């Protein structure tokens, strides 16, 4: 599969949907780019961008929705809006501060989806601002335009809801963390599970469903290790390095948990040598095993806040772009 077969709007969606966001900046920049391209602007100064950010965040913060994952600290944009609303700074000072302090990371990292630079650039940086590229105009003149806008809004809402949930649950989060920590922290060699796992997966990635070849195959904790602090086999799968990095330390959606439960039951039913281990770890009936996994998953959801592919209807395994992109990155034809 050639990279040229991928549509530009799919690269846009990769940026907006695939990233694990610690704050809402990427989505805000997406909105600004969309708006400027629709006004036919080819060049945007940093102060125009700052105006646009200020207006957007003023509305968002009005609803008192948190804008960052870190529950102890307000983001740069939130702090500027706070000062403005308290009457400590006027509008033009606020906009100046946005220009000076809010953009540093987002402008340089917008086109990076984890460690990979997306091969289509929607703007270029120059000394006074951003030059919008033809790729951007192409994406937003397409018929999908209203879908892309809806995706941006949905993603922003989703992030706010996730950040809020994390805040509201902060005592509960601490309790759950402590409970899992009691079980200790023992790192084992998880690669020894490869033959067992691969016997089931047959060289197909757990997350995207594409064939895995070569060296870049990872053993991954479906429910992140940072929460459960163990390497028990019921929670391990094999995936592409890329898919694993996309997922990073976030939680996959419930679809993958169902898939994991089914995979474990397959091992038990087929009297596989690891059956005994699974029964000891999860329970001696299918219901007990299922309930156990779901309980850990729900605890993880509370602690980690949001799921990897939390956007409506988005699911890497059935998303043709994601699959093509993975194939491209893994150089499989
Ligand atoms: Zn994959």
Number of strands: 7
Count of DSSP helices? Answer: 16
Bound molecules: zinc ion
What's the gyration radius in Å?
22 Å
Structural domains: how many: 2
The backbone outline, from C-alpha atoms, is globular
Q: How widely separated are the two ends?
A: 5 Å
Secondary-structure element series: HHEHHHHEEEEHHHHEHEHHHHH
Strand fraction equals 5-15%
Spatial order of strands in the largest sheet = 1-5-4
Low-confidence residue ranges: none
Biggest sheet: strands, sense, closure?
A: 3 strands, antiparallel
Task: Describe it.
Helix content is 55%, strand content 7%. It is mostly helical and 333 residues long. The protein folds into two domains: 3-168, no CATH class; 170-329, no CATH class. A hairpin with a 3-residue loop joins strand 4 (123-125) and strand 5. Helix 9 crosses helix 15 and helix 13 packs across helix 14. The chain is globular. It starts with 7 loop residues before the first helix and ends with a helix. The model has no long low-confidence stretch (mean pLDDT 86). Zinc ion binds at residues 205, 207-208, 210, 239-240, 243, 326. Zinc ion is lined by residues 205, 207-208, 210, 239-240, 243, 326.
Features:
globular, 333 residues, mainly alpha, 2 domains, three-stranded antiparallel sheet, 7 strands, 55% helix, two-stranded antiparallel sheet, binds zinc ion
């Amino acid at each position: 599969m050639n990279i040229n077969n991928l549509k530009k709007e799919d690269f846009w969606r990769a940026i907006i949907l695939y990233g694990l966001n610690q704050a809402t900046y990427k989505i805000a920049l997406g909105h600004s780019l969309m708006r400027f391209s629709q006004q036919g602007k080819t060049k945007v100064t940093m102060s125009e961008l700052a105006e646009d950010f200020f207006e957007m965040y003023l509305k968002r913060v009005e609803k008192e929705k948190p804008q960052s994952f870190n529950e102890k600290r307000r983001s740069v944009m939130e702090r500027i809006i706070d000062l403005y609303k308290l009457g400590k700074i006027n509008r033009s000072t606020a906009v100046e501060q946005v220009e000076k302090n809010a953009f540093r990371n987002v402008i340089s990292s917008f086109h990076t989806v984890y460690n990979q630079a997306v091969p289509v650039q929607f703007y270029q940086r120059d000394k006074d601002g951003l030059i919008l590229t033809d790729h951007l105009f192409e994406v937003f003149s397409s018929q999908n335009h209203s879908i892309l806008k809806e995706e941006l809004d949905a993603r922003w809402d989703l992030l706010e809801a996730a950040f809020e949930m994390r805040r509201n649950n902060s005592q509960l989060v601490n309790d759950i963390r402590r409970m899992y920590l009691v079980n200790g922290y023992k790192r084992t060699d998880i690669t020894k599970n490869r033959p067992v796992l691969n016997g089931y997966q047959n060289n197909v990635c757990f997350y995207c469903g594409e064939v895995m070849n070569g060296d870049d195959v990872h053993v991954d904790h479906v429910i992140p290790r940072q929460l459960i602090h163990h390497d028990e086999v019921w929670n391990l799968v094999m995936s592409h390095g890329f898919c694993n990095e996309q997922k990073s330390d976030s939680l996959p959606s419930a679809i993958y948990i169902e898939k994991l439960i089914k995979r474990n039951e397959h091992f038990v039913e087929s009297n596989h040598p690891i059956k005994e281990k699974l029964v000891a770890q999860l329970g001696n009936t299918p219901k007990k095993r299922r309930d156990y996994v779901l309980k850990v998953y729900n605890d993880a959801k509370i602690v980690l806040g949001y799921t990897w592919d939390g956007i409506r209807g988005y699911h890497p395994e059935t998303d043709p772009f994601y699959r093509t992109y993975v194939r491209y990155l893994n150089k499989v034809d």
